[in-house]
Each structure stands twice: as C-alpha cells, then as structure tokens.
Amino acid sequence: MKGTIIEALGMRFLPSDDEYAIAEMPISPSTRQYLGVLHGGASLTLAETIAGVGSLHLTQYDESLAVCGTEVNASHVAMSATEGKVFGKAKLIYAGKSTHVWNVDIVGEDGTIISAERVTNRIIKRQPSK
Q: Can you tell me the distance from the alpha carbon of 49 to that of 62, in angstroms, rounded to the nearest whole number?
C-alpha cells in the first residue's frame, strides 16, 4: 500500500475473517482536526478503506474485478481521544454478486464508539487494457 492514503494515514490491517475486516489508525497530526481529535474525514477514509479491503477479500482478489466505493455515510457520535489510535471493524451486511454493504464502527482504545458508518461497494468487471 506504499504511496497511498493508507500509508499516509498510518493504517494497519489486523487479522480477521470473511464476516469482519479490522484495521487500526493512529490519532496523529495527519488524522486530527483543529481541536486535536480525530477528523471526521479520517474516520470516513478508514471506514471506506476497511470495507474496500473486505470486499477485495470476498472477491478473492480477482484481478478481473474492481471494488469501487459508491456510498459512505456516517454518524459521528463521540469525540476521540487526542492521542493513541482508533480501530475500525467492518461487519459484512450483504454480499451480492455486484454489491457489498458493510457496517463499520470506529472505536477508541477504550472501546467508545466514535463513529458509526455504512459503506456500499460496487463490484465491477475491469476494462481490458488498451
């Protein structure tokens, strides 16, 4: 994931299974907003990234397919700590042939839910290279 937002924000994936995808992200200058807490956009980025990797796993990393996020919505319900890390846990809600839907909870190290999010991914055939 070199040279991507995943690297830039310090995300790290943790062991999971077909039903869940899990990652952690530091609360750092790259992910904070002006009050020093986690930026809502960083939460959305973490959620979309985890759900995207979860969908890639479900497609068995088939190179003929692409996973594209089509909708992300969030309810930011609590402020994060100003340091440490947050964890995102994506639970698969629906896995169709062309659509996957995930619920993602972003939680602090103390287990407090910071943001509750839903991500919809579209699974499409890649266009042949010209």
A: 18
